[in-house]
From TrEMBL:
The MAM domain, residue ranges: 8-134
Gene designation: Malrd1_3
Pfam short name (any one): MAM
Highest classification ranks of the organism: Eukaryota, Metazoa, Chordata, Craniata, Vertebrata
GO CC terms: membrane
Name of the protein this chain belongs to: MALR1 protein
Organism listed in the record: Nothoprocta pentlandii
Amino acid sequence: DSSSEKWDFETDLCQTFPELNLKPGWIRRNGRSGLGPPYSDHTGNDTAYFLSWTSEMGSSSATLRSHAFLPTENEHICQIEFYYWIGQINATLMVGLREHPENTIKNIWQDSGKRQNQWIANMITINSTEKYEV
């Protein structure tokens, strides 16, 4: 039996990104924050919250790491659907996978911002029998 969780950033960070406050540059904001585009989330709601990062925060890159996912004997395929926005020409968004007990991060997806300034939907499928982080 498959289960699904829906994460948004309306009230908190859904326990998905436990280290967010330790990661410089990442902020939780909405379209009315006065920080420039995007001025709404992917549905057009300007009061809905999303995570945002900009190089103007003082660093050229920032990492956001999920909590650890624990595959079960019956379920070891996970699909992660997300929306993203790239507003800078030279920006690259990457998704990495770190399986335990290894400590190396494998790049499993990336976009270099060819389609700028628009929300784009994406889905990543992860097939792992090990505990992992994204």
